[in-house]
Write a structure and sequence with these properties.
It holds the Pfam family Nuc_deoxyri_tr3. It is built from six helices and five strands. It is an alpha/beta fold. The chain has a domain at 3-35 and 77-144: Rossmann fold.
């Protein structure tokens, strides 16, 4: 059984790379939005023409990016949504809601201080992790049934 995983959310740290590297050897395929911030912001006007009003500039970019994002989420078996420390990722919350509406399995990744703010997003998730390594272990368990090294099943 292989998994197609969409990595949504914060673009300012290397969390995606940590998950991809940690999942080496697992039967997984990863997809993600464009993480080049400037390209993501300016794709609409670069492709479809300039906009003097910043609202329409951003709107064009969001619409073009949505083509990739919707396809990535729709094709995913699992959607990992990262909420970082520094910025508010409203787009990540939207992606989580879209994934939930499509019935996708969601893993949320965020620091502990965001627990309260994300309680509704967490309620839609099947796992809430604090580190990329925990996400990798969830994926490993789902694919292989193996617990992390040094862990054993609880005695009954």
């Amino acid at each position: 059984m292989g998994l197609n995983i969409y990595l949504s959310g914060e673009i300012h740290t290397d969390w995606r790379e940590q998950i991809v590297e940690g999942a080496a050897g697992l039967d997984v395929t990863f997809n993600a939005p464009v993480t080049d911030h400037a390209a993501s912001d300016d794709c609409g006007v670069a492709i479809l023409g300039a906009e003097p009003n910043k609202y329409w500039h951003d709107h064009k970019g969001a619409m073009v990016n949505a083509i990739r994002i919707r396809k990535g989420i729709a094709d995913a078996d699992v959607v990992v949504v990262r909420f970082g420390e520094k910025y508010k990722q409203w787009n990540a919350a939207f992606d989580a809601g879209y994934a939930a509406a499509l019935g996708k399995s969601i893993i949320v990744l965020n620091p502990p201080e965001h627990q309260h703010a994300l309680k509704e997003v967490h309620a839609a998730a099947l796992a809430v992790a604090e580190t990329p390594a925990q996400v990798v272990e969830v994926l490993r368990y789902v694919l292989t049934g193996a617990l992390p090294a040094g862990q054993s099943a609880a005695a009954e």
